[in-house]
């Protein structure tokens, strides 16, 4: 095989590999509870959430979200200091979400609601 033919084959294989590579998850939005205990990232390219317990304070964290203005869903995470929980949602339209710290002896600390697209 000639050198130019080898280069053409190599370029073709490289382009084929790139075509089958999963898209990188890019953050569409991030919210943090007012006390800094809960961090919620939403990756719109794959409809994935990641909830992080950002403080070592013995408080669990949770996320609320609503799809297309529907019922509010709650996802709890009690893994402890600097741990994360991820999940995906499906559908099309709009999504609202917020991050909260569950305060056992007082009102929960929740961020403002964020509006985004699915």
What does this structure look like?
It is a single chain. Residues 3-26 have low confidence and may be disordered. The protein is globular. The protein has one helix at 3-19; strands at residues 27-32, 38-43, 48-53, 61-67, 73-77, 84-88, 94-101, 109-110, 114-117. With 118 residues, it is mainly beta. It has a single domain (26-117), classed as Sandwich (Immunoglobulin-like). Helices cover 14% and strands 42% of the residues. The strands form 2 sheets. Strands 4, 5, 7, 8 and 9 form a 5-stranded antiparallel beta sheet that branches. It has a 4-stranded antiparallel beta sheet with strand order 1-2-3-6, with no helix packed on it.
Provide the fold topology:
Layout: H1 3-19, E1 27-32, E2 38-43, E3 48-53, E4 61-67, E5 73-77, E6 84-88, E7 94-101, E8 109-110, E9 114-117
Antiparallel strand pairs: 1-2, 2-3, 3-6, 4-5, 4-7, 7-8, 7-9
Features:
14% helix; 118 residues; disordered N terminus; 1 helix; five-stranded antiparallel beta sheet; single chain; Immunoglobulin-like; mainly beta; 42% strand; four-stranded antiparallel beta sheet
Helix/strand class: mainly beta
What's the SSE pattern?
Answer: HEEEEEEEEE
Looking at the overall shape, the CATH architecture is Sandwich
CATH fold field value:
Immunoglobulin-like
The N- and C-terminal alpha carbons lie at a distance of 49 Å
CATH superfamily: Immunoglobulins
By CATH reckoning, the class would read Mainly Beta
Shape: globular
Question: How much is the average pLDDT?
Answer: 84
Q: What portion of the residues fall into strands of 2 or more residues? A: 35-45%
The residue fraction in helices comes out at 10-25%
Unreliable runs, pLDDT <50, ≥5 residues?
3-26
When the domains are counted, the total is 1
